[in-house]
Design goal:
Shape: flat
Oligomer: single chain
Helix content: 40-55%
Number of strands: 0
Largest sheet: none
Order of helices and strands: HHH
Distance between the termini: 41 Å
Strand content: under 5%
Structural class: mainly alpha
Amino acid sequence: MSAAGDPLERMATVGNCEVFRGPLVAALQRSTGGKGGLVPLDPVLMFNILVLQALYRWRTRQPSSR
């Protein structure tokens, strides 16, 4: 796949997504960390997931209407 141009390898070499950390943290409204709930995911990780989702045209499951 490397010879064919693997998008994951290209994404790793093209740029460092850490440059988006500041704007992402500023744009996200997080809870104050009260009791209960899930631990929030890293905003850069979520950004990478969204990029990969768009790149591969993955969709999240949508509930079927009955």
